[in-house]
Amino acid sequence: MILSFLDRFGIDRQKILYVVVGIFNTGVGISVFTLLYLWMKDFLHYQWIACLAHFLSVFSSWLMYRRFVFKSEASALIEYLKFNLSSLFMLGFQMAGLFLFVDTLHINPLISQPLVVLIGVIVSYIIHAKFTFSRFIQ
């Protein structure tokens, strides 16, 4: 019903679905980071916790984007490898952003991480649309 409403008004379905799935994935990622940070902050640096949270969230994100947003039927293995490559880039983006916010601007990691993730949503959409799920590179 909602998707037919979007179609009727010419709203790009893929971008809306990307945002909806991204909100879900972001919630999962932030929740995993928060739980791991609260559990491990006394013996593990926040950057290592962010890496661990990232890798725990990647597979779920790939499945959701592949099935619901890009509706891809390409080789799952190739797409999964491309998704991981894109995700590693985004991990670097997140690490740099966290360093900027936490170590340079002295903002708490629990505030910094969601900010970095939200900025990364735009970057991530462009990467996934143009590279990961692109029919150009299969």
Could you explain the architecture of this structure?
There is one protein chain. The protein is mostly helical. The chain has one domain (2-132). The protein contains five helices and no strands. Helix 2 (13-40) packs antiparallel against helix 3 (46-69) and helix 3 packs antiparallel against helix 4 (76-104). The chain is globular. The N and C termini lie far apart (33 Å). The mean pLDDT is 86.
Q: Which short descriptors sum up this protein?
A:
138 residues; mainly alpha; 5 helices; 81% helix
Our measurement of the CA-to-CA distance between the termini, rounded to an integer number of angstroms, reads 33 Å
Q: What percent strand?
A: under 5%
The coarse overall form would be globular
Q: What profile does the largest beta sheet have?
A: none
* Classification by helices and strands: mainly alpha
Spans with pLDDT under 50 lasting ≥5 residues? none
The oligomeric state of the chains shown is: single chain
Helix segment tally: 5
Helix and strand run: HHHHH
Overall average residue pLDDT? 86
Strand runs, count: 0
Instruction: Give Rg in angstroms.
Output: 16 Å
Helix proportion of residues, in percent? over 70%
Total discrete domains: 1
Question: Quick gist of this model?
Answer:
Helices cover 81% and strands 0% of the residues.
Task: Furnish the topology, listing elements before pairings.
Blueprint: H1 2-8, H2 13-40, H3 46-69, H4 76-104, H5 109-132
Helix pairs in contact: 2-3, 2-5, 3-4, 4-5
